[in-house]
Every structure is written in C-alpha cells, then in structure tokens.
C-alpha cells in the first residue's frame, strides 16, 4: 500500500516461480512490427485521411539500449488517452513509428522534443535522418507521404531478407550479355515498360495543370525481365550504348501509335545521337507541325557536355521543326553556373535532393536569382519524393514539379496547392 495518502498509485509486479524477470526479458530479441505495419497500411490505404505519423529515428543514435526504447514507448503511449487513435510500431532497424489521430500538434511536438533532448543529452546522431533533417524525429501527414512510408518499410524487408547479400553483389552487365538483350529487345513488346510521369504546374489554385508527360522506359523492370542476373546500369559506357539502341526501339514503337500525341504533350528522353539519326527522321516524318509542337526532347546534361557540337545541331533542328528542348539532370551547382539562355533550351530539369534545403543564405540567394533571371527557360524540380521538395520549389519560384510525391497526391485527387499549404502549416 502507499505510505503517503496523496502519493500516486504504484503498479506492483510480482515475478512468479518459473517466470523470467524483466531484466532477463529485455535481453531477449524483441519482436518487430515491420510486417504488421505494412499489412495495416496496405489494408487501410483508402482510410488514411486525418492520420499522422511520427518517425523516431532511433537507428541513427550512436549509442542506445533496449531500456531507452521502452522508455520512449511509454512516453508516447501516455498521450494515447488524449487521442482518437494511437498505435506504436517497433521496426527491425530500431526506429519507432507511431500512427495517431486527434492529438494537438503542439502536444505531439512537445513530447517528441522532450524525447530528442533526453536522448541527445546522452549520445549523438551519426548522420541526418532520411528526410535530410538534423532531427531525431519527423512528424508528417500520412496521406501526403503514404507511398514513401510503404517503400521505407519494404526497404527494411529487403535489407534484412535472405536475398539482401545477393542484391548487393549483382555483377555489372557484360558485353556478351548486352548483345543478347539487344537481340531480345528487337523482338520484344516494350509497351508494358513504357511509363509516363506528369510535370505539373503548382501555381494553379483551381485545378492540377499538366505541363507535359515524360515518357520513359522502366529500366530496372526491363532488367528483371531480360537480364535478372546482371546490373544494366553498373557500367556507364555499356549503359550509354544500350540506351542509344533502346531509343531506336522506343521510336519504332511510337511510329505505330502517334495518335496518342493528340491532345497531350510528351517528353522523350533521347540521346543526341538518336535525334540526329535516321530512326528519328522516320519518326519526325509521321508528325504534323502541330504534333511536333507537343514533343519535348529531354537531353541529359552529361550527353550535352560530351557532345556539345551535336547539341548545337539539335537546337537548330528542333527550332526549324517546332520541337522544344529540356536539359535534364541538373543540380543547384549547374543551375548557378550554367548559361541556360545561351543553351537555348525551353525547360531545365533540376533533381531535388534534401541537401538543397541546407543551402546557406548566400548560396540560396544566388540560386534563386538565377531562377528569376531566366526569361526563356522554365525550371522543373524533379524527383520530389516528399513535400519538402514542393515547398522548396514554391519558395524558389520554380513553377513546375515532378516526382513520386506528386504522383501520390494526384492519385488521391488532391490539389498540389492544397497539399503544399497543408505541409507548410504542419512545418510551422
């Protein structure tokens, strides 16, 4: 019994004969909830509206104990009384994920902040978290990050599964194997591997406005189908040679279905040598002037640098025919130091990465000024895997975005403007 009348009640735990003590229990291998969480999310993917997710990045701590994990679970569980729903999951990499609904953001943020201060007072983080933040926790709207969460959990399964070592040691493709693939591609129906991803304007507040659709080949899926034992992309030179031949197969497939161009604009990832080839001339002959105006030729910056003279010929050819040009694969350094007006391109595609959020004030201002200064070139922020990329695009004055998070938001029928607004409110 309690000796002081106002003292809080205590839970007395008796260890019965034959039972293990809690100290011994903590030394046992804990049960993980990876599959449990994955199954729950997959079964409830249409009912995630209003759910939020806390990701505690315990795997990034230099030192931790099972007791730390138990204390954190207890701290999170204590907030359950104030929620409509709260469930906690322990992952196999020692991270903790909490799904909750109906708790004030300020309360959740306060609890997470206390956990972070407690842990970092005793140890340190070995690197930034997967979202590029110097924080032990991330709080997000599940509906806006659903696909990323699913992929993260599936990634844990691959890392810990029996095939993990096999995947890491997949050998680069050989010249002999590449020859077999090329012969197979010539007689192969590429249509199941031809995907498209939209480039969307984030400035429209009434509807999601599509700028164009980038048509591309799912290389890894093609690899699994035609050459599962080799990595096609591992050898840079052989991969470049392979894509040049793959371009011709794509153009051949398009020759039989140019009607899909009517009413929509598409971007084609092509090598410079392909655009100047007989295969492209044949493709061009089937297009009217109006249809050519719906085609954007996407050219990788590496191809451009290595073949600058060919690029100049392509610019003249595209200008005379009515095609538009997009320089693909840029980063913030290239944008800052490249004269895109001189390159005479209509679009420039920047690949988003979390480090762009870590620019110094001076670096960011130089970058943003370069964006503002381009009058003939429109910028696209691509590979946006989270809403942080969309918020950066809006802040920097980049109107066009592309990536997995964009696809996810569009599938849910949500306006990009509304998604960015919600993300900014959560961030604040």
From TrEMBL:
Residues 1-29 are annotated as: Disordered. This is EAL domain-containing protein. InterPro entries: EAL_sf. Residues 8-19 have a biased composition (Basic and acidic residues). It comes from the Bacteria.
